[in-house]
Write a structure and sequence with these properties.
The chain is of the alpha+beta class. The protein has 2 domains: 118 residues, Phosphorylase Kinase, domain 1 (2-Layer Sandwich); 208 residues, Transferase(Phosphotransferase) domain 1 (Transferase(Phosphotransferase), domain 1, Orthogonal Bundle). The chain is built from 13 helices and 14 strands. The strands form 4 sheets. The chain has a 6-stranded antiparallel beta sheet with strand order 4-5-6-7-9-8. The protein is globular and about 70 Å long.
């Protein structure tokens, strides 16, 4: 789409950010059938120069500082969302939380304020790349070097947030942005709007919107409405994301929110190796420990999860060192690494191991199991136990209670 100078009306291509005649900030031309009243206006110190993306909460614009011409991203709440007090509180908290943290793996928030017409805006560093969710949609299962590099960067950022007492609580591929660089992906964690201070005990900011918006990565304690949510909730979500990067599928999938919550509190996902050839049993163990129902059985920190995954692939480096490697360098190390009691973890296109001739029902964990292709069903899950049914019912009741509480609070 073309851009136009607001002063002399000269039209340029979309890659011309400033007018060649007077240096003015060019503004994206509009389709009359989809007119945006904000384009070309100024919020704070920034001119909204172009539309970038739309989300459930708001619209993201490319902004330019009126004097320095610094390029930023400006997120403005949709009009209907801006009338929701809970949504606005979440938006404010995103700014307050991010402003306290300074880490390359967490998106930098610059400014926050009112629009003047009843809405709110948030100014952030401008990122070029895509969300992890989009990358997974395009690629499916990821090459191992990319997977482990993303996970190590993600866990490093989470550890930093946790050191401030912040728990994200809404970690999902949509909130993991992959900025482009010559080294490979550079992770930026987004949206700390659902963050919970560990010292808080009340449900001042409920997770209602989070529950309905992204139930796939909720921890069992969240799904059951418990209040003792700590950093291990983010560990659970990070492990579920690792499972998805390895398999190209969601770990806990269902036709609706209730089904998803039932699986989260009652069922374990299959080992990634059942869906992807070449995955060693040690990797399966590391990821599945991260999604344990009992949080005391999970790694105690995101960094510990990353260390276990790195070790499971036969690497001896610290996760921070792994995160600093380029994707190509990491791929070379993985090619020569030998996972504990398993063969090297190959790329997605690697040939499947030959079927075992062992007729015994269980194989030695020191060998790589024979894996089915991603298209093959993993088998019919066993019927849930009575205890599991009770837990699932509690989860559904917790969800209903959350709905009631939300509308009461409104």
């Amino acid at each position: 789409m073309a851009r136009q100078c607001p002063r002399c009306a000269t039209v340029y291509g979309d890659d011309m950010f400033f007018c060649g005649h007077d240096g003015a900030i060019t503004v994206q031309e509009q389709d009359p059938s989809d007119f945006d009243r904000r384009l070309g206006t100024q919020l704070g110190d920034y001119v909204l120069a172009a539309r970038v993306a739309d989300g459930a909460m708001g619209r993201v614009y490319e902004g330019r500082h009126v004097e320095s011409k610094q390029r930023v991203a400006v997120k403005v709440l949709h009009d209907d969302v801006a009338r929701d007090q809970v949504a606005v509180e979440r938006f404010k908290r995103e700014h307050e939380t991010a402003a306290e943290m300074d880490h390359p793996g967490i998106v930098k928030v610059i400014d926050f304020g009112e629009t003047g017409d009843g809405s709110w805006f948030l100014t952030m560093e401008y990122l070029e790349g895509e969300e992890l969710s989009r990358a997974l949609e395009k690629s499916g299962p990821m090459p191992v070097a990319r997977l482990v590099r993303i996970l190590c960067q993600l866990c490093e950022a989470l550890d930093h947030a946790h050191s401030y007492g912040f728990v994200h609580r809404d970690l999902k591929p949509d909130n993991v942005f992959l900025a482009r660089s010559e080294q490979g992906d550079e992770v930026k964690v987004l949206d700390f709007g659902s963050v919970k201070l560990q010292m808080e005990t009340g449900a001042k900011l409920t997770a209602f919107g989070t529950t309905l918006g992204s139930p796939y990565y909720m921890s069992p304690e969240q799904a059951m409405g418990k209040l003792d949510v700590d950093q291990r909730t983010d560990v659970f979500a990070a492990a579920a994301i690792a499972w998805e990067m390895a398999t190209g599928k969601v770990a806990f999938e269902g036709a609706n929110v209730a089904q998803i919550l039932m699986k989260i509190v009652n069922e374990d996902p299959a080992p990634p190796g059942q869906l992807r050839p070449g995955v060693p049993a040690s990797f399966d163990d590391a990821v599945l420990r991260g999604v344990k129902k009992d949080k005391t059985q999970r790694p105690s920190s995101a960094g510990e999860l990353a260390r276990e995954v790195v070790k499971s692939l036969g690497l001896s480096a610290d996760p921070k060192a792994v995160a600093a490697l380029s994707q190509d360098e990491l791929a070379e190390q993985l090619n020569s690494a030998t996972p504990p009691a398993a063969q090297p973890f190959g790329a997605p296109e690697a040939a499947s191991p030959a079927p075992s001739t062992d007729a015994s029902p269980q194989r030695d964990r020191a060998t790589v199991r024979t894996m089915s292709s991603p298209e093959e069903p993993a088998g019919i899950p066993p019927a849930p136990s009575k205890a599991g049914i009770v837990i699932a019912a509690v989860a559904v009741l917790a969800l209903v209670g959350g709905l009631i509480a939300f509308f009461v609070l409104k």
